[in-house]
Amino acid sequence: MTAPFTPKRTTEDYQALDAAHHIHAFLDQKALNAEGARVMVRGQGLNLWDNDDKRYLDGMSGLWCTNLGYGRQDLTAAATQQLEQLPYYNMFFHTTHPAVIELSELLFSLLPAHYSHAIYTNSGSEANEVLIRTVRRYWQILGKPQKKIMIGRWNGYHGSTLASTALGGMGFMHEMGGMLPDFAHIGEPYWYAEGGDLSPAEFGLKAARELETKILELGAENVAAFVAEPFQGAGGMIFPPESYWPEIQRICRKYDVLLCADEVIGGFGRTGEWFAHQHFGFEPDTLSIAKGLTSGYIPMGGLVLSKRMAEVLVEQGGVFAHGLTYSGHPVAAAVAIANLKALRDEQIVSQVKNDTGPYLQNALREVFADHPLIGEIQGTGLVAALQFCEDKATRKRFANESDITWQCRTFGFEEGVIIRSTLGRMIMAPALVADHATLDELVEKTRRAVDRTAQQLGLL
Ligand code: PXG
């Protein structure tokens, strides 16, 4: 355990200074300032403590990233050693360094064999920026420069930089100056909300075939790639029906459109497989990675390329005019190596698949299957969503569902658990090192938050 923590300033002081200097993510700043941000000061395992020493069980792995939990000495030691030996060097002008080389050797030993090359970044947004440029360059080299439209999905999330915002499907982000030409979107495979009378399998095919319609509308000769999260994260933890991904893959192959998986959330063990596309059984041409690559201890992301794409870029491409100062940063690479070794050598990914994942999924279904507020429970491994509904029989959703899930999240904080609210769903994605007792605590505290929400609505 870490030493007892002595706050340096009062929470009120921190909050006042925070309000004076920061624009926070995705929030009404004025409203936040009136309320005061929670000041988090330390973490251990899945536990976080705020400045007043209140403990929270972190059911979201930070922002879907602290896959190994907090307080890992092996990751700290890896960073310290690398900082002492070589805190910075780069991959420009004919140089490289051992940390990034060894990271790639390890990463590609964990990936399916048809991937061979990586371009490293500092974040998931940057990974997707690199994706867009790499895909366009790939088609240029092959003599098809007009193939540059990227198709994403409504409510997909691929980052907050300009092009990743345009690629994502958050309408309210597009409206704030976040749209660009040559991006298009299709619907999300959200059966609960949009499936109507169709079975999930029928709806999965229908949702996938929207891609074919969109490709034909735009002209296959103009479409570069389809990009999506294997399961949608920030947009509500939507698991597509099983029929969805095979059909998407068939359509991409038929029209010579690259299939790009955003694995920023799904990668590195979340579903019980190393990568989420393996859970859903399809074979993307590229993978965008970040978050769990370093368990969030230090920023790092990247774009993984199939051999087929890498061969074109390397053998036929000449100069690819692209590079970031911190691509493959040695300290980030050293932390990523320690992180991947721990996930592999402590059998954490297989434990999620065979033990803790099924344990959490069963517990959630036992507790919430008959709950009046919960219409659907989705998830696998250590990621799950609870769909809120007004009427279970008809799958009717509340008109003000975002307000209701936000209230549930607030109750969660009061109960000492951090779970995420999205449109009409509550999401959890605890660190992959969670044991049964911690998962019991997560489910029990979530139950209390959901019950309090249901009581407020007069449903319990
Ligand atoms: N792709 C996906 C699938 C993501 O979830 C990004 C790209 C962008 O990564 P960076 O590292 O640039 O943030 C993300 C990020 C949430 C939440 O509340 C999700 C993300 C970020 C912040 C909050 O669900 N995902």
Structure description:
Helix content is 43%, strand content 15%. With 460 residues, the protein is an alpha/beta fold. The chain folds into two domains: 38-71 and 347-456, Aspartate Aminotransferase, domain 1; 74-345, Type I PLP-dependent aspartate aminotransferase-like (Major domain) (Aspartate Aminotransferase, domain 2, 3-Layer(aba) Sandwich). The strands form three sheets. Strands 4-10-9-8-7-5-6 form a seven-stranded mixed β-sheet, with helices on both faces. Helix 16 packs across helix 17. The radius of gyration is 22 Å and the shape is globular. The two termini are 40 Å apart. It binds 3-[O-phosphonopyridoxyl]--amino-benzoic acid. Residues 63-64, 123-125, 128, 157-159, 229, 233-234, 262, 264-265, 290, 301, 420 line the site of 3-[O-phosphonopyridoxyl]--amino-benzoic acid.
Any ligands, ions or cofactors bound here, and which?
3-[O-phosphonopyridoxyl]--amino-benzoic acid
Percent range of helical residues: 40-55%
How many helices? The count is: 17
Main sheet makeup: 7 strands, mixed
Instruction: Assign the CATH architecture of the largest domain.
Output: 3-Layer(aba) Sandwich
Q: What is the structural class?
A: alpha/beta
